[in-house]
Design a protein that fits this description.
Layout: H1 4-7, H2 12-20, E1 48-53, H3 56-64, E2 73-77, E3 80-84, H4 86-90, E4 97-98, H5 99-105, E5 110-113, H6 118-132, E6 138-141, E7 145-149, H7 151-160, E8 170-171, H8 178-205, E9 209-214, H9 217-224, E10 232-234, H10 240-245, H11 258-266, H12 272-277, H13 280-299, E11 315-325, H14 328-349, E12 352-362, E13 372-378, H15 381-389, H16 392-410, E14 419-430, H17 440-450, H18 489-492, H19 498-505, H20 535-542, H21 552-557, H22 560-567, H23 569-574, H24 605-613, H25 620-624, E15 640-642, E16 645-647, H26 662-666, H27 670-682, H28 706-720
Parallel strand pairs: 2-5, 9-10
Antiparallel strand pairs: 1-7, 1-9, 2-3, 3-4, 6-7, 8-15, 11-14, 12-13, 12-14, 15-16
Helix pairs in contact: 6-8, 7-8, 14-16, 15-16, 16-22, 19-28
This protein binds a DNA duplex (10 and 7 nucleotides) through helix 11, strand 11, strand 13 and strand 14.
Length: 723
DNA sequence: CTGGGCATCT
DNA sequence: AGATGCC
């Protein structure tokens, strides 16, 4: 399949038009729902940015402690280095390497614990908020990535600076045609916006990162990692086939995960080209029409999924993993610990959770690494109010029995068990003022008075509707340019963030942390155990009423409030009706620990290596370069200069001759880069190999997922608009 | 010696 | 409630 690109060569113009017009030409073939009516006809060509912060956790720690900048730094979670700074990378440390291996490879490696995500989460939202202050269409992906739809911003700049052609691209652009000129111009403007936003992120927050500029999310994400770290890359439409066709495996396509890749492999599909060429019907049989079409589209670079504004998170969770947990007492203590932290976070958020969920992962030799189980239940109103009102201790005390009840729905504690993870989660988050109960107004009055923040409505919502039509009404800042006098960022980030505005309007108490990462009120543990009644009383008088499966020795240790809860009818009735002696000690069999496991069903080592590499795709460039397929595609005749740096329109995987590491290349001086480029260019490899036949027949099932959530999110967006 | 989140879909 | 996918 090395030369599959050549084999399937086809008229490129046709191929290109088939993707470019995919949104427009939606022939009668499309049986699905009609194209999104919510936003009207989507713009034929969007401009999408993808931001990806460099080794995010490590950057945050280096900001908190600048001395760490000059040493090899690894962020440790349990026994794993989840990420590391570039000093450490030069010494051979990679992400998701075991601490043992890392220390072996780099004895000087400095480790910082990273299990507490508080600082990372806070910084992450600062980045998102900063982006949102320019344009509300920001979608988070994890803590360190953001998508942004800047189509409207680009249009506005186009309208305002008609002569902007002059600053579009420096140098030449390969295959630049007048017809397409406006397309390139828009991407060029997008690249300028991306550069300005990266600069804003750097100057305001001190973070560096990469950006990708393209016409959809898939391509923007794929292209953003071409040059790392702290650089950006624009994908021109004519190079779509390069960046797509050269991906070395299906797993590199965002949206194709482990399971999907395995199912595709079972169909004999391993490469992107395989997926491009497989008859749609074959996929439909396995995945259903919707997923099949989506997969086909991804394989040819089509992704019309909208940038869906993330807004505030829809759930808050806290979890811990461990090698073994086998006693109810330990479980209870862990749950209490997790809940204390979670309730504090929930309180800072300000919203009131309506649902609680407990998730566990059991140890299992066969099914070792996934399979979680969960149970959830509504949160009684009076408990939820304790969370928002700041009575965290009370809230935890009352939530623990709730959690234990859910726990016993999953685990029969009269038998031996072995857990490796516990997760507690609040969801169905309700903004106050959204009428939780009839007495909501009164309680909110009280809680409001206790809130340190003034919950005054900031009347920044003067902006009208701003519904789904892309937020065209938002003012986009003409940052960087000489335009307007205001530089809203300087006040926006530090004093009022978009979320803070939202928080005010919804009476959230959304974080007020300053930009400087130094501030960190350590999570103060809730004092839920302090109010403990006389143990003797609880112990002797009620032991005989203990629920089944409950160890009285454990029961004794509990605070009286929890003991009462455990004896409440609601709790007892919910228990499984097993008749076990309450005093039966829990037998804990020793389970042999499995030290190795097969990653997949496949046996060849490349697959395993691949799987390992892909455990964290965010670093794929550094580790997977050598896997670049032997076939190389052509270099375009021209290169693009931007801000003195050479930008390659090629994809990360196929932009260079096989022996050239893009990461190394990116660190060369621009003039050296240019020289190398000219040299390679003259080797004149075959022009572009459009590797697809008429893909998918252009039928596009419009992604309408954002209809419900989108409108909801957008109803909030007007509050985000900078005043 | 496999992290700690988040989201969506079914 | 679980599966799956992303970081």
């Amino acid at each position: 399949m090395d030369n599959s690109e050549d084999e399937v060569e086809e008229d490129e113009a046709e191929w290109r038009s088939s993707w470019a017009d995919s949104a427009a030409l939606s022939p009668a073939a499309a049986p699905g729902p009609s194209p999104s009516k919510t936003s009207g006809p989507a713009p034929a060509h969007r401009v999408i940015l993808h931001f990806d912060l460099d080794c995010f956790y490590a950057q945050v720690e280096m900001i908190r402690n600048p001395a760490l900048r000059e040493v090899p730094l690894g962020i440790q979670q349990k026994y794993i280095i989840v990420t590391c700074n570039y000093v450490a990378r030069e010494l051979g440390v990679t992400k998701l390497m075991s601490v043992t291996d890392a220390k072996e490879k780099c004895p000087q490696l400095v480790l910082v614990k990273g299990e507490d995500l508080t600082h990372y989460r806070e910084m992450s939202y600062k980045v998102t908020e900063l982006l949102m202050s320019y344009c509300p269409l920001v979608e988070r992906l994890g803590f360190d990535e953001n998508f942004m739809d800047v189509t409207e911003m680009v249009e506005r700049r186009l309208a305002q600076t008609p002569e902007s052609n002059s600053f579009s691209f420096k140098g030449h652009v390969y295959n630049h045609l007048n017809v397409k000129g406006s397309d390139y111009l828009r991407l060029a403007l997008g690249s300028h916006i991306a550069a300005e936003l990266r600069e804003a992120i750097h100057s305001k927050l001190g973070l560096t990162g990469c950006a990708g500029v393209a016409t959809n999310k898939l391509l923007a994400k794929l292209v953003s990692g071409t040059f790392k770290p702290n650089q950006q890359t624009t994908l021109l439409p004519e190079n779509l086939s390069d960046i797509i066709g050269c991906l070395s495996s299906l797993r590199k396509v965002p949206g194709i995960g482990h399971q999907t890749a395995k199912r595709l492999q079972a169909l004999g599909l391993v490469s992107i080209q395989d997926l491009q060429l497989v008859p749609l019907n074959d996929l439909v049989k396995e995945f259903g029409h919707h997923s099949a079409q989506r997969l086909k589209n991804l394989a040819i670079g089509i992704d019309d999924s909208p940038v869906t504004p993330s807004g505030a998170p829809q759930s808050l969770s806290d979890e811990d993993s461990f090698k073994k947990m086998s006693s109810t007492k330990d479980v209870l203590e862990k749950i209490q610990q997790l809940l204390s932290s979670l309730v504090e976070r929930m309180n800072k958020d300000g919203r009131q959770p309506q649902t609680f969920r407990l998730t566990i992962r059991r140890y299992s030799a066969t099914n070792k690494w996934f399979s979680r189980e969960s149970r959830q239940c509504p949160i009684p109103n009076h408990i939820g109010q304790k969370i928002t009102s700041g009575s965290s201790g009370d809230a935890v005390v009352q939530l623990v029995p709730l959690a234990m009840k859910l726990f016993h729905k999953m685990v029969d504690s009269s038998a031996a068990f072995h857990l490796t993870l516990i997760n507690v989660c609040f969801s169905n988050l309700q903004a106050r003022g959204a009428a939780v109960s009839g007495k909501g107004s009164i309680t909110s009055f009280f809680t409001q008075s206790t809130s340190p923040r003034k919950t005054q409505v900031c009347s920044s919502q003067t902006q009208n509707d701003s519904s789904q039509d892309g937020g065209s009404r938002y003012t986009d800042r003409q940052f960087g340019t000489n335009r307007t006098t205001e530089h809203p960022l300087q006040q926006t980030v530090t004093t009022k963030s978009p979320f803070s505005s939202e928080a005010a309007l919804h009476e959230f108490k959304w974080k007020q942390s300053s930009v400087v990462a130094g501030e960190d009120p350590p999570l103060q543990r809730v004092h839920c155990n302090t109010e403990r009644s006389d143990p003797r009383e609880a112990n002797n008088t009620v032991t005989h009423q203990l629920p089944p499966n409950f160890d009285p020795e454990v029961f004794k240790l509990l605070p009286s409030e929890i003991q009462k809860e455990l004896l409440s009818p609601a709790y007892v009735n919910s228990l499984p009706s097993t008749s076990t002696s309450p005093s039966a000690p829990v037998a804990v069999p020793s389970v042999p620990h499995i030290t190795t496991q097969s990653l997949t069903d496949s046996q060849n080592t490349e697959d395993i290596k691949e799987a390992v590499n892909e455990l964290d795709p965010s670093y794929r460039m550094t580790t997977v370069n050598h896997q670049r397929p032997p076939s190389t595609s052509a270099f375009p005749g021209e290169y693009v200069m931007e801000e003195g740096r050479l930008s390659l329109p090629q994809s990360s995987d196929c932009g260079f001759p096989g022996n050239v590491d893009p990461e190394v290349f990116s660190e060369l001086p621009p003039d050296v880069q240019r020289e190398l480029m000219s040299e390679w260019k003259q080797q004149k490899l075959v022009p572009k190999t459009p590797s697809s036949r008429k893909p998918g027949r252009g039928l596009m099932t419009k992604d309408k997922k954002a209809a419900g959530k989108g409108s909801q999110a957008n109803s909030l967006l007007k509050y985000f608009k900078p005043s």
